[in-house]
Amino acid sequence: MSELSIQELEKVAETYERLLVPALFEEWAHRLADAAEIQPDQHVLDVACGTGILARTVAERTGAGGWVSGVDINPGMVAAAKRISPDIDWRKGSAEALPYEDEVFDAVICQFGLMLFSNPETALQEMMRVLKSRGNLAVAVFDSLDNSSAYAAMADMYARVVDERVGAALRFPFSMGETDVLASRFAAVGISNAVITSYEGMARFSNVRNMVLADVKGWFPLAQIHLDEPTIEAVVREAEEVLQPYLTADGAVEFRVPGIIITATKP
Ligand SMILES: C[S@@+](CC[C@H](N)C(=O)[O-])C[C@H]1O[C@@H](n2cnc3c(N)ncnc32)[C@H](O)[C@@H]1O
User: Fold this and answer.
1) Is the C-beta atom of 116 inside 6 A of ligand 1?
2) C-alpha span between 182 and 170 (Å, rounded)
3) DSSP assignment of 96-133, as one string?
4) Is 259 domain-assigned?
């Protein structure tokens, strides 16, 4: 999955948690928990948990009588999640081969992981396998890049200033935004009652440099992309121009990042 050492993976995960989670992912955890109708005392699985923002949010709702598990393929993410919340059950594992028995969860949730899986259909089948009958599935993906103009501009900038491989790494997470294609992917694995809902998300980075560092040190290394310091400085300079339309009076960067939540109930 990655040529990085566990220490390097943990460092990337820590940057992800510090810069990307509050700026982009945290608000979605509440939406996913609502969409899955999480209740006290439930057993819940967070697939591709990253540093665990969704599992932590859900654990507050399931309470002392509940049980929450988070699974991620990246041991650095799992180690960071464990350090933040030692009481949650964190596991290293693949979404395509979930390390759980059949029908053990009242809800299975997955926030911005599906687009990254090598086999999303197998992962969906696995999520349904571990879900109890009448259990809820809720999966979030980003809308298309056409609807996230700041990231579209940043991807073009990375392609221009660094190379096309880096632009592609930023575009890749936005590859599942076509709702009809999404619906057919769920239907193809027998999830025919899926409900697809679009949401208006907002990203807010405290400044341009932190937005660039979130990509360069919290995301790209997982795609085997490592930029040297002079290149990072060149990217920050270009980003100051490209992100002008999204700057607030206090120098923060704010922009829309719409997403889609697909929900289904296991028969
Ligand atoms: C964009 S992050 C989202 C993390 C977390 N859900 C959040 O909202 O912060 C995507 C996560 O998917 C994980 N991932 C990618 N492929 C995976 C797979 N096949 N199985 C499990 N996790 C995977 C990555 O390691 C990463 O932590």
Assistant:
1) yes
2) 20
3) TB-SS-SS-EEEEEEES-GGG-S-HHHHHHHHHHHEEE
4) yes
Ligand 1 mean position, distance from CA 194 (Å) = 22
- pLDDT digits 0-9 by tens, 62-112: 999 999 999 999 999 999 999 999 999 999 999 999 999 999 999 999 999
Is the model's pTM score more than 0.70? yes
CB-CB contact of 131 with 150 (8 Å): no
What residues make up the domain containing 193? 6-265
Give the pLDDT confidence of 153-162 residue by residue, as tens digits: 999 999 999 9
What is the number of domains present in the chain?
A: 1
Measuring CA to CA, which residue among 20, 16, 146 is closest to residue 80?
16
User: What residue owns the CA closest to ligand 1's atom 14?
Assistant: 48
Sign of CA dihedral 97, 99, 100, 101: positive
Residue 1 lies in a domain: no
Cβ–ligand 1 distance for 77 under 6 Å, the answer yes
Query: Residue 215 maps to which CATH number?
Result: 3.40.50.150
In a domain, 141, yes or no: yes
What atom in ligand 1 is closest to the CA of residue 77?
Answer: 27
Assess whether the C-beta atom of 49 lies below 6 angstroms from ligand 1: yes
Task: List the residue whose alpha carbon is closest to atom 1 of ligand 1.
Answer: 112
Alpha carbons 48 and 159: distance in angstroms, whole number: 27
For the Cβ of 74 lying below 6 angstroms from any atom of ligand 1, the answer is yes
- The answer to the question of residue 86 being in a domain is yes
**Is the Cβ atom of 111 under 6 angstroms away from ligand 1?**
yes
CA of 117 to the centre of ligand 1 (A): 8
